[in-house]
Design brief:
The chain is an alpha+beta fold. It is 23% helix and 40% strand. It has 3 helices and 5 strands. The chain has a 5-stranded antiparallel β-sheet with strand order 1-3-4-5-2.
Length: 133
């Protein structure tokens, strides 16, 4: 399945994102990636409350993250989210965090679609899959 071009979310680094030395704390990069995926879905017309109202939601099942260089207090970052693989119940995202032209973090994140009541995988709705092409 072909996928939509990169979605990019601009993010500024605030003091609460950093450690005492002004460097972004490693887990916050995963938060930036989560925000980018959420905003990507929102631009496609699917926000988290809409999924929850239907009794379904996406959860992260795998994250492979490489840290190349640190971000610092007040940096302006770009966080991308691109679907690189679709399966019946999951999506694989390639996500990059950069400052200007410098790659800081690269991550592959798999999310699975679950039924809220049973907590078991469920087929991703066709309208969601179709919106990714």
């Amino acid at each position: 399945m072909s996928v939509m071009a990169n979605f990019t979310l601009p993010v500024r680094v605030y003091i609460e994102d950093t450690d005492a030395g002004g460097i972004v704390y490693y887990v916050n990069y995963l938060k930036y990636c989560e925000r980018a995926r959420s905003e990507y879905f929102r631009t496609l017309g699917f926000d988290k409350p809409a999924f929850l109202e239907q009794g379904h939601f996406f959860v992260v099942t795998e994250a492979n993250t490489k840290y190349h260089a640190p971000a610092r207090l007040d940096d302006e970052l770009n966080v991308t989210a691109t679907v690189i693989e679709t399966k019946r119940v999951s999506l694989l995202f390639e996500q990059l965090i950069s400052r200007e032209n410098q790659r800081l973090v690269s991550s592959q994140v798999r999310i699975a679609y679950l039924d809220h009541n049973t907590m078991k995988p469920k087929a991703i709705p066709l309208d969601v899959l179709n919106s990714l092409t």
